[in-house]
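Notebook entry, structure prediction.
Reason for the run: the old model in the group folder had no record of what sequence produced it. Starting over properly, with the input documented here first.
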Amino acid sequence: MFSSFTHHKARWLTGIALASVVGLIGWIDSLILTWAVLGLISLFAFHEAMQLFRIASQSAYFWAAALWVLAYFYPNPDDLFFLTAVVFGSALA
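New structure, fully documented this time:
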């Protein structure tokens, strides 16, 4: 166990730091703080996915950010997956 820690020290420290930040946000229990942090994480992940799949369309960032803002005001944010699929399907048709 100890050799695994010393061999991957940066990964262990990053994991502990991220778990601490998530724990702190959960302990504070603020809707706006949770929405902002998870939204920023999702936008960073979206950016990484855009680079991974080599998508150059800049309008995708607008739609990702718009969906993030809409999730705060929409009464049932889990329904936004279905709403997004309907809008995407209608754009393809």
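Summary: Residues 31-52 form the longest helix (22 residues).
The old model has been moved to the deprecated folder.
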